[in-house]
Inverse folding.
């Protein structure tokens, strides 16, 4: 029986690059994204390279609270999954005073609330089935309060803290389910930055930028070695290591400088 993975945001960017790598390993894929046309186009693109691939997608809005129950019903009806990749997410750049409350709440709903709801829904199902892996995509923004991305960075700090703590709880309880946290640095070739209206914002990208393919490769290496946390890109790994020995005000000043619009 083929292994099965559910990837939120699987039809674009990091999710799409990871999908390609999982197809190489014989996974059957389930995608949930917003844009039905993009799901169809991305699926057709992958089928040209992997003609026998099994990829199904649903256009559902994870900001809607009922979406997770529909996803569970759909995927369990197909036999369940052994890999859940909570990758869907987005940012909106701007001062919190300038953004609408609704825009900020949508980020919280998709990046944090839906991720938590998906993990809670699939965890017992995976345990009952004998095991599984939950991969939660946070960000380098999870490490530092980030002006211009205040709510986005806060949602990613939630993802990182929640995922690392859940991982420890499951290990201590002897659960057959593992949790891995992924913190990508700026990714140069996904629509994320355009969608976030971040034109002219550096976000350390001049020296830490990575690509979706590199992030996917680092995720797979992390899965293979049973990592609890994966920071993608060698430059970002060094920067985060250095941050541990740097005064917090200096780190916050550097972050503010890098996230101001040039
Ligand atoms: N790119 C970066 O620099 C960067 C850095 C650190 C972390 N990350 C994180 O990496 C993840 C993937 O980002 P990416 O760079 O690959 O960007 P992306 O190409 O824009 O991918 C985001 C995916 O999430 C989906 N999505 C967004 N809102 C959704 C909603 N309400 N309901 C269902 N699906 C939704 C999108 O669906 P549609 O395409 O159909 O709209 C898309 O497939 C995100 O969690 C992001 O925060 C990105």
């Amino acid at each position: 029986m083929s292994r099965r993975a559910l990837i939120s945001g699987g039809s674009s960017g990091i999710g799409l690059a990871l999908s390609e790598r999982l197809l190489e390993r014989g996974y059957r894929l389930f995608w949930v994204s917003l844009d039905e046309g993009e799901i169809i186009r991305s699926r057709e693109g992958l089928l040209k390279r992997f003609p026998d691939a099994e990829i199904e997608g649903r256009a559902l809005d994870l900001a809607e609270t009922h979406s997770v129950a529909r996803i569970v019903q759909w995927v369990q009806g197909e036999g369940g999954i052994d890999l859940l990749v909570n990758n869907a997410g987005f940012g909106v750049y701007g001062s919190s005073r300038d953004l609408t409350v609704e825009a900020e709440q949508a980020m919280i709903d998709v990046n944090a609330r839906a991720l938590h709801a998906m993990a809670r829904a699939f965890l017992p199902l995976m345990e009952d089935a004998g095991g599984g892996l939950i991969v939660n995509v946070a960000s380098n923004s999870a490490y530092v309060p980030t002006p211009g991305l205040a709510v986005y960075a806060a949602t990613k700090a939630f993802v990182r803290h929640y995922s690392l703590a859940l991982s420890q709880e499951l290990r201590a309880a002897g659960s057959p389910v593992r949790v891995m946290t992924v913190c990508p640095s700026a990714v140069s070739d996904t629509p994320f930055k355009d969608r976030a209206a971040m034109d002219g914002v550096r976000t350390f990208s001049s020296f830490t930028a990575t690509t979706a393919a590199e992030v996917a490769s680092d995720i797979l290496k992390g899965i293979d070695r049973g990592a609890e946390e994966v920071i993608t890109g060698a430059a970002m790994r060094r920067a985060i290591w250095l941050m541990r020995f740097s005064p917090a005000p200096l780190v916050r000043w550097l972050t503010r400088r890098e996230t101001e619009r040039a």
In short: The longest strand covers residues 177-183. The pocket of NAP is lined by residues 8-9, 11-15, 32-35, 38, 61-63, 87-90, 110, 137, 139, 184, 186-187, 190-192, 195 (CB under 6 Å).
